[in-house]
Amino acid sequence: VSTRAAGIISLVALLISLALVLLPGSKGEIIDSGEINHFYINQENNLTIVINNPFAGETEFSLSAELQSHDLQQPVPLPQPNLQFTLAESESDNYDIPFQIHYSGDYSFYISLVMNFDNQPQTIEKSWNFTFYNHLTVIPGSSDQVTFTGGAAWSLDGEVFVLQPNDNSQVGLIFGPIDSSVYSESVLEINHAYSLTTDAGFSISYSTDFDSLEKRYTATWHELTTLSPGSFDGSTILLLPPTERCFIQFAAAIGEPEIDPTWQLNWADVRGVTPKHELDVSFPEVNFLAYSSESGVGVELYNSGLFTQYLGNISASLNVKWQGETITSLQQSLYLPAGETRQLNFVPALSEPGIYECQLEIKVLDRWSRAQTCHILYSREQYLLPENGLSLEQELALPFEAAAILFEGDLQHNGEMLDSWSEDGRQIQHLTAGSEPLTLGGGESVVVRAIASLDIHRFDATSLEPVQELVPGWEGATIEFVSGGDETLSLQVVNKGFNTEIFSLQYFYAPNFLMQLEGVSEITLLVDETQTIDLTLTPQLEVPHEGGSQFTVLLEQLSTGETVALNHVLTYRASEIMVDELHFNRNGVLLGQSVAGSIEISNQGYPVSELTLELWLTAADGSRELLAFQPVNHLENGESINFDFEHSPVIVGLHTLQVELKGGATLINDQDAQFRAVALEQAAEPEAAASLPLRSTAAATGIIGILSAAYYFSKSENLRYHSFKLLLPLYTRLQRDRLADHPTRQNLMQYIYGHPGANLTQLRERFGLHNGVLSHHISILEGNQVIQSLRNGRQRLFYPSGFTGLAQELLITNDVQKRILEEIKVSPGVTQSMIATRLGMSRQKVNYHVTALERKSALRVEKSGRISRLYLLRLR
Known about the structure:
It comes from marine metagenome. This is HTH marR-type domain-containing protein. Pfam families: HTH_24. By secondary structure, the protein is mainly beta. It folds into 8 domains: 21-132, Immunoglobulins (Immunoglobulin-like, Sandwich); 134-272, Sandwich (Jelly Rolls), CATH 2.60.120; 279-379, Immunoglobulin-like (Sandwich), CATH 2.60.40; 390-453, no CATH class; 459-572, Immunoglobulin-like, CATH 2.60.40.10; 577-678, Immunoglobulin-like (Sandwich); 680-803, Winged helix-like DNA-binding domain superfamily/Winged helix DNA-binding domain (Arc Repressor Mutant, subunit A, Orthogonal Bundle); 806-875, Winged helix-like DNA-binding domain superfamily/Winged helix DNA-binding domain (Arc Repressor Mutant, subunit A), CATH 1.10.10.10. The protein has 10 helices and 60 strands. The strands form 15 sheets. Strands 9, 11, 12, 14, 17 and 19 form a 6-stranded antiparallel beta sheet that branches. Helix 3 (717-726) crosses helix 7 (771-783) and helix 9 packs across helix 10 (843-855). It is elongated. The termini are far apart. Residues 1-7, 9-27, 681-714, 727-741 and 806-810 have low confidence and may be disordered.
């Protein structure tokens, strides 16, 4: 026992010895008094510490310092982090560790001191925490003095502002603007001295709308503090709101005190810590999520701090609750450089439509955090509303059995409310319909922002044919049978519910209107599936009757019994048999020649059978003859049939061909055309003079000489033709043996009918005739209206009688003239100035070409007062 007691005593003695060594001596702790010069960034600074030697003898010391940034999570470089020194017994000394801080925030100094006494090293450590600030000087600084009443004023004494009191006065001294939004917390420190009685009042306030010109006396001031009566000399600390334009006012209101108050402003600073780890978070309070959509709760993060946040620094979580219980929790992190924006998208797995409550929480390390509540409306479909919402001036009937309504105001409805939520004047209600469709109301003060369907079972069925109102209150699509072939009717069914659904289909129609229908009787649709159903409709061979017949598809959702009727009207296009063309090769023939032609008929409607085509001739004497009879067994939609015919008239005069198209005994369509038959033997021969006085003969001979000279000189077909027409009686007398040359006139007529537009030169060279002979026969043909002629410049052109053609078919080669003729064709009666404007050319140029075209008989000019209008010249 004595041995154990001795050991315990020795151990206690050792511990006491160590405690005496380590505990502070009479001069204090070994590491004592860690003080810094100031608390501002970007200025040289010092940490001053006092080291006391606790040992009974000279001791060697080795000091190491480390400055750690809480925000950066890394050390700040120090110019002299290590010191070596020796202290005598009980000696103390001060040591400075220089440093400089560049970012405001929280920092820690860590000191490690190694002491070597009697070759027995020992180590002790100590730390201090400091906050360093950004610094803005307010006083001294620019100021503005506003005197409201009386004669009190502020005066500047060096860098100190001093109040000069005066009875019944009110005066303010204003500094700013100051941007206090750059700090996470802005602190205003005012060093001042004042003496204040109850007959005066001193206050410090701020404003965000002060303007020395426009709002000098009307700015809104918010009080920061009111100074208490008495005397004070020191600093007052006040918190400033975060704002980009902050003005500080030192206001004095003085009554009639017995002792004048005093107030001296020595200096004032605004200090704060710039946010290093701060995010601006924005996301909608109400999120609409669609079934099976990749969209979710979108969160936008902006890094408004100074430092880049690496992956893992930011942690974001979304907890989703359904009926008060958490059903899922989602976490994300991201890399976000300073000054940039990134998106997070939380896509929760939800099973039922409804209103879900969410809790969003975002943290940046342990330096910043934010939590906020939001809601999810999980739905398959939204009701389309105006961008700025819908004011319920009139009641709104919804197509949903259950719906989530986001609104403002006092909403009225005829349904049952299952759940609700409200915040900042906005509300969400989960409503279900009763026996009547869900209807919303409440007047113009109620504004609906969003409506989402919460139906578990919901589908849409539509016809892909255009739907229209067929009769008042009854809509449907029209199916028209045109070609006689099958028609395809396409229906579309969309499952907008949250379950797989089975649908049955029934078809209702009149059998006499439809020969056959092919279509499915049942379909199965997965969630969010769309299916197109093609029905094949086979029409009757012939149009059953005029008008239409109803055709209805009844679609039933078997899980709920809900039905939708898709109405249609079946119609047949009426047969439209047309005589498209009755054409023959000539408008005038000689007796003995034949007229050949063709007839074209077509059907633009439903196929038709058992038609007959009859071709009748009504001769010039009024007699009527059936030239052709052609049965048409069947004519499809869009089909055309051609029939050729030929006829040789035996009676002189105007004949009419008529086509009659019949269905049974009913005339369906007809068309007629005319041609002229001519007998050359009937052409009137000019009577030859039996005898002429010698003087007349001599005169005629002189005229012949003059005109012949003109002919050879001018080389003009028009002059030749008219000259010989003038001298036909004389020429006939001289050439009587050629007057009855009927074969010649017949050859001329056949050539002109086959070559409309032939001129005199062509005819002369073709048949080897002299000019006089040719003019003689041409004149007889034209005089009997077998042919007609037209002047074209120097030429005379000949056409069959009754020939119709446009004058611009003449040889017009000039591009400008072609464009002018095209303008006249489009706008008959157009003026030259209008053509000049449309073609972008001068009126002089247009007038030049119009004159040339008039000479060519390509157009005619009609005067209307002082206005000349232009028309194309047609041959008739």
